[in-house]
TrEMBL record:
It comes from Actinoplanes xinjiangensis. Its EC number is 3.4.11.18. Belongs to the peptidase M24A family. Methionine aminopeptidase type 1 subfamily. GO terms for biological process: proteolysis. Removes the N-terminal methionine from nascent proteins. The N-terminal methionine is often cleaved when the second residue in the primary sequence is small and uncharged (Met-Ala-, Cys, Gly, Pro, Ser, Thr, or Val). Requires deformylation of the N(alpha)-formylated initiator methionine before it can be hydrolyzed. Substrate binds at H83, H181. This is Methionine aminopeptidase. The gene is map. Pfam families: Peptidase_M24. Binds 2 divalent metal cations per subunit. Has a high-affinity and a low affinity metal-binding site. The true nature of the physiological cofactor is under debate. The enzyme is active with cobalt, zinc, manganese or divalent iron ions. Most likely, methionine aminopeptidases function as mononuclear Fe(2+)-metalloproteases under physiological conditions, and the catalytically relevant metal-binding site has been assigned to the histidine-containing high-affinity site. A divalent metal cation 2 binds at D111, H174, E207, E238. A divalent metal cation 1 binds at D100, D111, E238.
Amino acid sequence: MIELKSAEEIGRMAVAGQFVGELLAELKDVAAVGVNLMDIEHHARRRIKERGAESCYWDYAPSFGRGPFRNVLCLSVNDAVLHGLPHDYVLRDGDLVSIDMAVGIDGWVADSALSVIVGTPDPADLKLIEATEVALEAGIAAAQPGGRLGDVSAAIGEVARSYGYGVNGEFGGHGIGRTMHEDPHVANSGRPRRGMRLDPGLTIAIEPWFCRSTDKIKFDEDGWTIRSADGSRTAHSEHTVAITATGPQVLTRRPAHVPASA
């Protein structure tokens, strides 16, 4: 079932979205060479608790995965792209890290992700991250009232192909609102002018993710971490977006810079 939100409800989602955007901007600065992934995870736990928010990841137990997810972040490094489990790993020069988080505040949820390189960047990794960010903006621009969901998917897929990347169809974006995952599924490739109508009040998470040299994936033994099948680098970008009568409204925009607190 798809629930269209009122302007007031979208405003309440925007409160959660602002917090998610600010915390992701902060975590982007926390991620650095020599920092342990668990330090990033615990930093986020502390911030979420201080805000009185609730993580949507903690105790999340979908059909895949082994047992409930007992973290507030997905931290995916290098060839890992989705659902990476925070673990005892110290970031090295040149690592590509994707940070994904979703929280609820007063019953309304927002979800967002970014990818960042710590230390010395590889130009090929910069291109990969850029592709996900450009695809995300293209998907957002296509999310116009009266349009079709396929317009969003087609815009993302077109960017992927223009950069020379394939698109995996197994995981994509999703509806969001009272819970993290709602209908509809938002594919990262599709046909324009097809699919459900984009009516004002629809809220979706748009999340392009690409692998450098494959569109195939594999799962780690933990049942959570998804990697490129050929071991190539990966990247992931995501925003929560509301369809309004005047166009798409991004609820999880990040400030340009947020100083990381101790």
